[in-house]
Design brief:
CATH architecture: Orthogonal Bundle
Number of helices: 3
Order of helices and strands: HHH
Strand content: under 5%
Largest sheet: none
Shape: elongated
Helix content: over 70%
């Protein structure tokens, strides 16, 4: 997911996407420990997606009070 796509989402949608991405990362980590992961590069991608989501969510939250 690109930052441009994330910026188009509302804060509530970003929060939902963040929760689902964290759940997916948890499942991949658990499968990695049992040796059942087919795409180990996906773990790194998810971590970066989580960082993007959190960054943009923080930006949107800080802009909201300034605009009001």
């Amino acid at each position: 997911m690109t930052s441009k796509e994330i910026r188009e989402l509302s804060p509530a949608e970003i929060t939902t996407k963040l929760r689902s991405t964290r759940d997916e990362l948890l499942q991949l980590r658990l499968r990695k420990h049992t040796g059942q992961v087919e795409k180990p590069h996906r773990i790194r991608e998810l971590r970066k997606d989580i960082a993007r989501l959190e960054t943009i969510l923080t930006e949107k939250k800080s802009q909201k009070p300034a605009a009001a």
